[in-house]
Amino acid sequence: MTVDVKRVAADLAAEQEVLDAVVSALDDDQWRLDTPSAGWTIADQIGHLTYFDGVAAQAIEDPQGFAASRDELMAASLDGGADAAEDFMLGRYRAMAPPELLAAWRDNRSRLARAAAGLSDGDRIEWYGPSMGAKSFLTARLMETWAHGQDVLDAARSAGVHARREPTDRLRHIAQLGVITRAWSYLNRGLDVPEDEVRVELEAPSGDTWTWGPDNATDVVRGPAEDFCLVVTQRRHPHDTRLAVQGDLARDWLAHAQAFAGPPTEGPVATSLPE
After folding, report:
1. Strand partners, 180
2. What is the DSSP letter of 268?
3. Backbone angles phi, psi at 269, to 5 degrees
4. Residue 193: which residues within 8 A CB-CB, separation 6 or more?
5. 143 CB neighbour count, 10 Å cutoff
6. Which helix (H) or strand (E) holds 79?
7. Which residues have C-beta within 8 Å of that of residue 23, sequence separation ≥ 6?
8. Global pTM?
């Protein structure tokens, strides 16, 4: 399936609207619920998205201004460590009441949508590592929205709040990112990248089947696309999903899978034992 940057931008906006519907239904106390990310509330999750949607728009509109902002963040991290970097990104948003924070997120993502409307498939955008192609850049924003949205949903549900997000075929963007970052997941940890390929066969929400990798691969990952996306974004341990994982290479990959940039991180521990 051929996907252009306009389609990714539209799907990003749709994913943001779904999460907006979830958080806009929460009261102020529920915005302060703890999420699976240690030390982060639901408000912090939205603050994180607000910050990065804003700097993503800046990276498109004003690359020099973005580079200066990136340097400030890196300097804060070097001087004060992870806590200082977190305060640099989230401090202003932690001072906001939920309605103000929601409005700020809406403003930043609207700005991102306007900036993205001028992108072409061949454009590249400077970011925190190497520059990114326009489609990959917006796909990463969609993945972040969906993954942090999962943290919000998990927190709300744990507190007994009725919150739903139906899976859609927008998950294909995240699944594709999960597949193509297999090598990155090893390199990011200083590990050798396995030479043999892994076959991935996923059941799309629409009922279609999405596949990657050679038909004759001995290592295979099969199951619902949503579960695969939860694993590669480190929101679920493979044992807590309906994925069928065949072969040592496939199991090892999912143990290291990390579809997002940044230092290597470990996914959640299993809450159920493998059969």
Report:
1. none
2. P
3. -75, 160
4. 182, 183, 186, 187
5. 25
6. helix 63-94
7. 31, 42, 46, 102, 152
8. 0.95
CA distance 236 to 253: 14
Q: Quote the tokens at residue 110.
A: 């609207």
Residue 99 CB burial class (10 angstroms; 0-12, 13-18, ≥19): exposed
Question: From CA 182, how far away is CA 92, in angstroms rounded?
Answer: 35
241, burial (CB in 10 Å: exposed 0-12, middle 13-18, buried 19+): buried
Provide block-wise average pLDDT over 10 residues at a time, the chain (275 residues): 87 98 97 96 98 98 96 92 93 97 98 97 93 95 98 96 95 97 96 97 98 97 98 97 98 96 89 62
β-pairing, 132-133 vs 209-212, is unpaired
Strand bridging mode 132-133 / 244-246: unpaired
Give the integer Cα–Cα distance in Å for 36 and 50: 19
- How large is the angle between the packed helices 134-158 and 42-61, nearest 10 degrees? 170
